[in-house]
Amino acid sequence: MSYFRVNEKCNGCLACVQNCPADALDSTDVGDQRTLRHNMARCARCGNCWRVCPEDAIEFQHLLENKWDEIASLTLAHCSVCGEILYTTRFGETVSVKLDRTIKPLCPRHRESVASLARAHFFSGGKRPKEVQR
Amino acid sequence: MIVGDLKPLDEIVSTILDYKRVLVLGCGSCVTVCLSGGEREARQLARELSHPRHYKDHPPEFTVGSILRQCEHDLVIAYQEIPPETDAVLSLACGAGVQTMADAFEPLPIFPTLNTTFLGASLKPGIWSEMCNGCGDCRLSCTGGICPVTRCAKSLFNGPCGGPQNGQCEVDPEIPCAWALIFYRLKKQNHLHLLEEVKTPPDWRPAGGRGPRTRMRTGIG
Q1: Which residues on chain B are in Cβ contact (under 8 Å) with A46?
Q2: Taking a C-beta distance cutoff of 8 angstroms, is the pair B70, B101 a contact?
Q3: What is the pTM of this model?
């Protein structure tokens, strides 16, 4: 999706191309077609194109507001007890590699309660408590 | 970029005591990058200013907004919407942005919330250092790309002075001596002969001594 948009008033005069200080606008004439091009990486969003356009064809508001682009989509890991979202599975794998052990997907609350459970189990001769705090 | 620091909260509160509806307006350029005046900081400031403890009566009603740059008159006129019945604006822009907004929306009062501090560069994440004074007579070509006007506490053109200790400035031992940095940079560049030239006193008139500076570039439009 382009952040730089012109409306139907554009008559291809190239005022914007000639006045862009960042060389972010360009045009090509091929056959009977003039094509205007915009490079977002070069664009300084200075608004000069919008300022100089004699036809009010540049809709600068799209460069000011626009919408969110999805740039990545990753699977989430949930707490194995309550289902609370914790982190991405890739992040869990990275941490596991760095710690050199598998980490259980548990939220802080249940990590604590599972630890209490384990302590209770080992220090009470194997008798399991009846309730686990959630 | 322009670096600014948030003013003390009490000072900001004192400017809006007489107002009922206040727009807290961030600026999306320099001060966003240096984490002092972006939309996130505007939201945070509005949240802090909303606390009743700052006021004898009710706190003003705050709305939050942000625009790419507050320092471009035609841009703010065309695209910055001021919510109805707003009776004051708290601007998180630099001084240039605050003044542009005050001109654009006169007579609406526009109050600064930042102290515009310096022109700086970020050498490490989260740290900005002053690099340029805008003196209008750049001598970086003979100082190895290190500005003595800005980075020497005494702005010496023929340094160092007699004060540096172990390469640190006598004014503040935390600051490296700019002239020590210049020496070692020029040594690496094999340009130490540049230090043997006595620099003439600078012409400070382009530094603003003749009043506010304006530049006009032809060929636009």
Answers
A1: 72
A2: yes
A3: 0.82
